[in-house]
UniProtKB/TrEMBL annotation:
CDD domains: SGNH_plant_lipase_like (cd01837)
Family indicated by similarity: Belongs to the 'GDSL' lipolytic enzyme family.
Transmembrane segments: none
Keywords for this protein: Hydrolase, Lipid degradation, Lipid metabolism, Signal
Keyword Lipid metabolism: yes
Descriptive protein name: GDSL-motif lipase/hydrolase family protein
Amino acid sequence: MSISLLLPLLLLLLSTFFPRSRNLAVPQELKNLSQNLITYNTPAISPSSSSLVVSFSISPSPTPTTLPVNPPLVPAFFIFGDSSVDCGTNNYLGTFARADHSPYGRDFDTHKPTGRFCNGRIPVDYLALRLGLPFVPSYLGQMGTVEDMIKGVNYASAGAGVIFSSGSELGQRISFTQQIQQFSDTLQSFILNMGEAAANELISNSVFYISIGVNDYIHYYLRNASNIQNLYLPWSFNQFVAASIRQEIKNLYNMNVRRVILMGLPPIGCAPYYLWRYNSKNGECIEEINDIILEYNFVMRYMIEELGLKLPDAKITFCDMYEGSMDIIKNHELYGFNVTTDACCGLGKYKGWIMCLASEIACSNATNHIWWDQYHPTDAVNAILADNVWNGLHTKMCYPMNLEDMVAPRTK
């Protein structure tokens, strides 16, 4: 690409993420964070009080217009993860990983960007409605009152990983360990407001959804950060990440969490970014990357199966995103997709070089695309994956049970 075309794009990038009226400097206290040091201890986080929040004003994410009409199947829905389920957390952070600008959200209920890395809904939006609940608010997007959080909270942060430094080159993000700490703060708020018995009853009957780990590969292992590839072979690294997630699930169990959906990793070797970076000739997926993901999902699935046996009063299920996504890619014509390799929004080969910066570089119709941007699927794909998590409508993804089975009323 010529310099004359590249320069305006770089200026657009800078103006998108660093507008003059905003100061995105990283606070000093964040530079010294470690995995075991959480600098915030109150569930009442607002843009003016939290050290995690950058010093600029921002409007709350638009309220979705679609509300559930059926009685809720569970009291609340709690979500942990990365950009696959971030619904606005990173709108409040100093980071390049932001989806608070057009064309993100153009096909959402409000037709406005909300912080979701998609043209429309993310999987947990569809699942919330299945559960009879409203869309779940971001932890940083509500005021910390019990009324705001009683039906669920979304702690997910784009760029976050299991390893604390995963995604650090993008700027601020809230790691998985920190998200668990945020939930602990939420639980303490519930206990103070409704009593320990009522709070534990609410938590034990709610659903917890975890979608984390992909950034530990995209922004850490595959980048060979800290020379990690010379220290860990893929199998050993997979074991490390899986064991770390397993421990956090045990930590949640100790806080009375009993219903957990753990999402596996998607086939990122098929993502437009890696097709571009590895110069895929005809859109073939990068098998060396997908092999690592396959191996990780194998390890995670059976580690979760073992954990379920040790925690018999818990319902923990593993949903294989690789299986569900590859079913869509291989059978794309049956699902109505005719663009399987190129992102809807981006620049470069497969639209994988430059991220989705502006509406001018987005396709006019995302419904026939599998990929929305460099890494993230379209709303249409998210709907299919959510159906599979709910009841395996299109293909079986979840083991040993679907979400519908998990929340089914107990029979005497």
